[in-house]
Amino acid sequence: MSDLHARQLVRLTGLLQLETRVRAAAGDELSFLMVNETLNAVRYRQALLWRAAPVSRIVAVSGVATPDAHAPFVVWMSRLCRALECRKTDGIQELTADDVAPDLRSEWPQWLPAYVVWIPLAPRLGALVLAREETLGEADRHLLGFLADAYAHAWRAQLPKVNFRDRAFYASPRKKALMAAAALALVGACFVPGRQSVLAPAEIIPREPAVIRAPLEGVVDNVLVKPNESVTQGQILFALDQRRLRNQLEVALRAHDAADTELRQARQFAVVDYKVRASLPGLQGKFDQAAAEVAYLREQLQRVEVRAPQNGLAVFDDPNDWLGRPVAIGERVMLVADPSHVEVEARVPVADAIDLNIGGPVRVFLNIDPERARKAVLTFVSYQAQRGVDGTLAYRVKARLADDVPPRIGVKGTAKLYGEQVPLAYAIFRRPMSAIRQWLGL
Fold it and tell me: Quick check: is 202 in a domain?
């Protein structure tokens, strides 16, 4: 026997032995043999096993007991395998850096030699990847074809087989009756009436508060109370800058004095001068106008100090945000609210909106006490959706709490609002049905 025939016989014997070991392997031993023992049949620098389903990932790397999914080499090879898997080509493929995308091509020399052999094992199963320094010969290609068939057969043999016809309960009449009864019970449960509900972010707000607005146009000079401070009726809350009004009042007083002097002089000469007597009504009107302007400015000066109309809490943000800030007439600055009169305000997104009836039940879960559900009654539902701070359209709803001890104003939480009675199937599939309808354009 020649040396060539002897080497071919040894190689064939090694191939048969490897095939026997692969078919007898169990669990992780199979993947270990595929990436390490293939070296006895074909030379390569490195090998890895790619699993396509149910989760695409690298399950074995030659020379490594357990591959690290976050290692740079494994991460880059996973990207390469996904790209090669998308080609959906049959048979063994030999590739170089020129056959892949530019983003993979730039890093190819860092991780791999010149050639990569992609060996698909079975449809939707996976592939064996070999990294080689030289191109694949025809004899090696045939040899890898036999090995790929053996590897795929052994791998499929380890997959769990689901065959309902072979299960005992499928063929058992008793089991069939139980399954039919369970199916009927499930269908019947879909028609069980249940109440629709929706969750919405909620906040405790004052009920019927006194809105403190700017009485005139000006600049906030001083804020004399702190946020959430208790105030009494008549207490000064904030004051506007008086300098502009005082200057206007001084000018108006000078004009008033001038008009008064001019009117008195005209009355003295009116006895002997007919023309002066005829000008008295005009001078009297000018004097009255100046007097009215002085009275108006004095009244405005009295309004620069804004006082609390009732007892309660001063509800507003940081006072520093208002100091030196110009305000318009009627602009809201703060609220004076009774801490014992509060209600719940919630915003129901348009996508989650359901039919809500006034007087319906509401359960409120506050963030400071999430385990306790507070009962409330729905009192208001807006007819038009408004855009919130986060940019989403939502309906504004209010509910009155039934607790004797009201929570603090400003506390946030979640409100669960209940709607009409509907079948359970409608309550469960309402959102998916709405999404499908919008997607189909029906």
Answer: no
* Residue 196 falls inside a structural domain: no
Using 50, 70 and 90 to split pLDDT, how confident is the model at 6?
low
The residue type found at 410 is G
Over the Cα atoms of the chain, what is R_g? 43
Listed residue (147, 142, 113) closest to 127, CA to CA: 147
Average pLDDT over the chain reads 83
pLDDT at 170: 43
Q: What is the pLDDT of residues 264-276, one digit of tens each?
A: 887 777 666 777 6
- Confidence (pLDDT) at 160: 64
CB neighbourhood size of 63 (10 A): 8
* CATH assignment at residue 357: 2.40.30.170
Q: Which domain holds residue 407?
A: 341-440
| Per-range mean pLDDT, top range of 88-102, 173-187, 303-317 | 303-317
Number of structural domains (the chain) is: 5
User: Comparing 21-25, 60-64, 289-293, which segment has the lowest mean pLDDT?
Assistant: 21-25
Closest CA to 189 of 419, 423, 422, 427: 423
Distance CA(202)–CA(370), nearest Å, equals 13
What tokens appear for 183 in the block? 């199916």
pTM for the structure as a whole:
0.49
Do 266 and 332 have their domain in common?
A: no
Same domain, 47 and 170: no
Find all residues with CB under 8 Å of 358, minimum gap 6, and list them. Answer: 378, 379, 380, 381
Q: In b/e form, how buried is each residue of 374-391, taking b as 16+ CB within 10 angstroms?
A: bebebbebeeebeeeeee
- Quickly count: other Cβ atoms within 10 Å of residue 2's Cβ: 7
The DSSP output letter for 26 is -
Does 194 score more than 80 pLDDT? no
DSSP codes of every residue in 335-392? EEE-TTSEEEEEEEEGGG-----TT-EEEEEETTEEEEEEEEEEEEE-SS-EE-TTS-
Q: Within a domain: residue 204? A: no
